[in-house]
Structure formats: structure tokens, C-alpha cells
Write a structure and sequence with these properties.
The structure holds two protein chains of two kinds.
Chain A lengths: L3 H6 L1 E12 L2 E12 L3 E5 L6 H8 L7 E6 L2 E2 L5 H8 L2 E4 L11 H12 L4 H14 L15 H13 L5 E5 L7 H18 L2 E5 L3 H7 L2 E6 L2 E7 H5 L4 H7 L10 H8 L5
Parallel strand pairs in A: 3-8, 3-9, 6-7, 7-8
Antiparallel strand pairs in A: 1-2, 1-4, 4-5, 9-10
Helix pairs in contact in A: 4-5, 4-6, 5-6
Chain B lengths: L1 H35 L9 H11 L4 H24 L7 H39 L2 H8 L3 H40 L3 H11 L2 H27 L4 H31 L2
Helix pairs in contact in B: 1-6, 1-8, 2-6, 3-4, 3-6, 4-6, 4-7, 4-8, 4-9, 6-7, 6-8, 8-9
The chains are: A alpha/beta, B mainly alpha.
Chain lengths: 271, 263
């Protein structure tokens, strides 16, 4: 199942000609991208650009209309459920709201993947959980419930859970959303530290420009479900593409109005 | 006008068929994890089943006892009052024994558990859905059906018949208390007469029904919980919908069951 070409090109993640739909609406339109091993790739774009959708497909949460997504050489659009389960042990995800299980303590949350996927004894699991919590500066917080944590702490606890199995791939959905600038910067530092320590391949979906420029090796810019550009921070900054420049300069989008479509919208006609 | 009506009818039918298909798929998947989970190294964990059994069964005992006792008394009051017109009050024991074991105990337990635990399950799953906890389970490599639904299904399948049997005993006792006061018969005589008239089939009929109700409550709660998309309001709607649908299906299933078991 391991693909020789992928190993040679050093691609940890390879998205090839991905097309996805939500109902009958096309969301992603022939998306191609690669993320190299140990690289931090930031996917950015405005609201509705399809960046979160792209992440959800990379996580194997939905079935694509066409195209392929290879993670560590395995095409997740084709592999069996068992193979996907095994692959997921090499993946960690930090969701936008943290997605900690509210009925469990922080410690139980962090240790859950170890309980489910390993045969380690309870003491070892507890020690590993506490180690990961101290990596994200939450040492001693393992007995608290998620509801007792602040927004920044929830994100860090979710990160501890994401890295508890030492994954090769780490995904972040809007890590800085809802955080104050200091907490957001701390989380950025954590992401950089984790990459340095574990050489993890990291994909970050965000619309936070400061954070993007701080952590990205390369940036993928999405717009209306299509890739506008993939390049280094410098290349994206210096791009003469108008859409990219208005995204970087936080300019409001001009809404293109088609008279016929607008009339249909007003009269409530669908197709 | 006609087009809109036809469109609505079509959409509702389509949604109903979709939901039925989804329910059947969930049912199959929950049993798949129960029997083959260990092969995928995702066996069902006993503590999670016990936790659900505690919530669905043990914690419901006080309210079940109160309801069952009141229903037993109510049947005795009605039975004696009605049978008095024929001078056949002594037949009330037969009436209570059969209606409690065959009908009232399983039905009341089904409705109670749908309202108490079915709503809690739908609300919990719905909240987990909107907080992305279900997605988090999937990306950790844990099947939400295996982790959340199979333990609940097993707990329902064990606890509903257990609660029904418990309700049988308490309702018969309630009927006995009133009958002994009204008719002057001793509780011992009432108990002897009940054992004499009751057949094992009467009790198992009620227990079989409760197994069907257990599957209905679990499926309806999880289908509605997993389908939540629209925030807090969605959770509220899913909870209400799951209770109303569970009770409706329980009563319809009860009618169908009773028809076949009495023919």
C-alpha cells in the first residue's frame, strides 16, 4: 500500500484533483496540494472559501465526489475501515472549539486515545497524559472538567490530546479563533515547538494573518473552492494576485451581483 | 398549490425513507460492534455498559415503583367497580394479573424510559454533535456507534425487561393492597390466586415487548441525536422529536405485538 513515489517526493499529505459537493453545491473544485514531511502548511482563505471543508475531507470525515487524498502514502478514499483506523493512530486533530469530551476530566480526555488504542497499564497511561499536559503548560490541571477551563486552556488541552499518541500528522482548525492575542501567540509557539521536537507534519486552517506569518513554512490560499496559490510566506506576501492582496490587506470583498440571480433570490425561486 | 403539496409530500416521504434506512444501518452497526468489535480491536467496554445500566435502570427504580404501584391500585379500583355490576369482584385478580403483565407494565416502562433516558441520550448525542465531540471521536479512531450507541443499546436490552419485571411485581402488589382492603381478602390469598391464574407466557409476552421497545427507544434517540445540525435549538428539537416519536412507535408496536400474540 505504501506508494514509492510519495516516499521519494517526501509528501506526507497529497491531495489530488479533489472535488466535493454539499448536496448539489460544489464546494471544492479540483484541488491539488501537497504537504511535505515536517512542514507546517497553513491553509487560508476568506469565509466560505472551502478551507474547513478541505480539512474535513483530509480527516476522512466525508466521502469525496472524486479525486484522491493520500495521507502517509495511503489513499484514504480507497482504504478499508480497518486501515483507516490504523492510520488515525498517526493523526492528531485540534478542533476549533477544542471538542473536549465534557463528561470527562481533562486528564481522561488526554488519555482516551491511549486507553482505546494501546495496552499500556494505567500508571503508564496516566504518566504519559500528565507529560503531554505539561508540554502544553497545563501540568496539574488533569482533574479539572473542561467547563472549568478558559478558552485558551481548552485549546491547549485539546492539543495535548491530539499529540498524546505522538502523531506524524497534526491538524488544527482555526487554532487562534476566540483567543486573545497573547494566548494565540502562545499557541503558535506551542505548534512550532511540537514540530521541532517531533518533526510532525502540521496543517493549520486559519484566517488569522499574524498567526499564519508566524508559523507557516508554506501557505495555500483558497478562494471559492479553488486554489489561488501555494507558496512560501514571502511568495504569498509578494503575490500580485488581487484576491490575495485584498485578503492580506483585509479589504472588503466586492459582491458580484447578477441581475437574474438576484431576482430569483428575492422571489424565492430555486433553480 | 397542488405542486407544493405534492413536493412537500414527496420530501417528507423521502426523509422518512432516509431515516428508516439510517436507523436500520445504525442497528446493524451497533450489533456489528458488539459481536465483531474485538476483531477491529474496538471491543465494547463493560464500564460504559454498566454506567448506562445505572442511568437507565437502577436510577429509574424509585419512579418505576411509584408508577407501577399507582397503576396496580388504579386497575384494582376500576376492576372492582366494573365487576361489581356483575357481582364478579373476585375475578379482579385475573384482570389485574393479565393486564399488568401483558400490557401495562411494559407499556408504562417503555414510555417512562423514552421520556427519561431516551430524551437524555438524544440531548447528549446532539450536544456532542454540535460541539464536534462526535467528529473528535471519529478522528481519534473511535467509532461513535461502538463507543456511545452499542453500550446504550445493550443497557436498554437488559434494563427494560428487568424494569418491566420489577413493575409487574410492584403493580401486582399495588392491586393486591387495594383488593385486600376493598374485598377483605388477605394479601396471601391474593398472591396465591395471582400465581394460579398467571401463566409464564403472560409474563414473557410483556418482556418480549420491552425488548422491542428497548430497540425503538435507542434507535430513535440516536438517529435524532446524530442528525442535529442547528445549534442549541436543534438539540431541543431533536430531544422533543425523539420522545414523541419513541412513544408513538412504542404504542403502535405494542398494538401490532398484541394483535399477533393474541391470535
Amino acid at each position: 500500500m505504501t506508494n514509492q513515489t510519495d516516499t521519494q517526493t517526501n509528501a506526507a499529505i497529497e491531495v489530488d484533483d479533489l472535488v466535493t459537493h454539499y448536496g448539489t453545491t460544489r464546494i471544492l473544485n479540483h484541488v491539488d496540494m501537497q504537504v511535505n514531511t515536517g512542514e507546517i502548511m497553513v491553509i487560508m482563505g476568506g469565509s466560505g472559501s472551502g478551507k474547513s471543508t478541505l480539512l474535513r475531507y483530509m480527516l476522512g470525515l466525508h466521502q469525496a465526489t472524486s479525486g484522491s487524498i493520500k495521507l502517509l502514502g495511503h489513499d484514504i478514499t480507497k482504504i478499508s475501515a480497518q486501515e483507516m483506523d490504523d492510520l488515525r493512530k498517526n493523526m492528531g486533530v485540534s478542533f476549533q472549539g477544542g471538542a473536549l469530551f465534557n463528561s470527562m476530566t481533562v486528564g481522561e480526555n488526554v488519555c482516551l486515545p491511549l486507553h482505546e488504542h494501546t495496552n499500556l497499564d494505567e500508571n503508564t497511561i496516566q504518566i504519559m497524559g500528565r507529560m503531554k499536559l505539561s508540554v502544553v503548560n497545563l501540568g496539574g490541571f488533569d482533574d479539572l472538567m473542561p467547563a472549568q477551563l478558559s478558552g485558551g486552556m481548552i485549546k491547549r488541552a485539546a492539543l495535548a490530546r491530539a499529540i498524546v499518541m505522538d502523531p506524524k500528522l497534526l491538524f488544527f482548525d482555526e487554532p487562534s479563533a476566540g483567543l486573545d492575542p497573547v494566548a494565540a501567540a502562545e499557541l503558535d509557539d506551542l505548534i512550532l515547538r511540537i514540530r521541532k521536537a517531533l518533526n510532525t507534519t502540521i496543517v493549520v486552517v486559519t484566517h488569522d494573518l499574524d498567526s499564519t506569518f508566524r508559523i507557516a513554512d508554506r501557505i495555500t490560499v483558497l478562494d471559492k473552492g479553488k486554489i489561488l496559490m501555494i507558496g512560501t510566506v514571502e511568495e504569498v506576501r509578494n503575490s500580485d494576485n488581487q484576491r490575495i492582496q485584498s485578503l492580506l490587506n483585509r479589504e472588503a470583498r466586492h459582491v458580484e451581483i447578477n441581475a437574474d440571480e438576484y431576482l430569483k433570490e428575492l422571489t424565492g425561486q430555486k433553480e | 398549490m397542488l405542486k407544493t403539496f405534492t413536493e412537500k409530500l414527496g420530501k417528507t416521504t423521502l426523509r422518512g425513507v432516509e431515516e428508516l434506512g439510517y436507523s436500520l444501518a445504525l442497528l446493524v452497526e451497533s450489533f456489528y460492534w458488539l459481536f465483531f468489535g474485538f476483531r477491529r480491536r474496538q471491543a465494547i467496554k463493560l464500564p460504559s455498559i454498566f454506567a448506562q445500566m445505572m442511568h437507565i435502570g437502577i436510577q429509574a427504580l424509585p419512579i418505576v415503583a411509584i408508577l407501577a404501584f399507582a397503576i396496580g391500585m388504579m386497575l384494582a379500583i376500576q376492576g372492582i367497580a366494573t365487576l361489581k355490576t356483575f357481582g364478579a369482584e373476585s375475578q379482579v385478580v385475573l384482570g389485574i394479573a393479565l393486564s399488568v403483565t401483558r400490557e401495562f407494565a411494559p407499556l408504562i416502562i417503555g414510555i417512562l424510559v423514552a421520556g427519561r433516558s431516551g430524551s437524555a441520550l438524544a440531548a447528549r448525542i446532539g450536544t456532542m454533535q454540535i460541539a464536534q465531540e462526535i467528529d473528535a471521536l471519529r478522528v481519534i479512531g473511535i467509532s461513535p456507534v461502538r463507543y456511545l450507541m452499542t453500550p446504550a443499546m445493550l443497557a436498554m436490552l437488559v434494563m427494560l425487561p428487568a424494569l418491566t419485571f420489577f413493575a409487574d411485581l410492584i403493580a401486582l402488589f399495588g392491586g393486591g393492597v387495594y383488593s385486600s382492603l376493598e374485598l377483605g381478602m388477605s394479601l396471601q390469598a391474593y398472591a396465591d390466586r395471582t400465581i394460579e391464574v398467571l401463566k409464564i407466557d403472560d409474563i414473557t409476552q410483556g418482556l418480549y415487548k420491552s425488548l422491542v421497545f428497548a430497540v425503538i427507544i435507542t434507535l430513535v434517540s440516536f438517529v435524532n441525536g446524530f442528525s442535529v445540525t442547528a445549534g442549541a435549538e436543534g438539540v431541543g428539537k431533536a430531544t422533543t422529536r425523539s420522545v414523541v416519536l419513541s412513544i408513538t412507535y412504542i404504542i403502535i408496536a405494542d398494538m401490532v405485538f398484541t394483535f399477533f400474540l393474541t391470535h
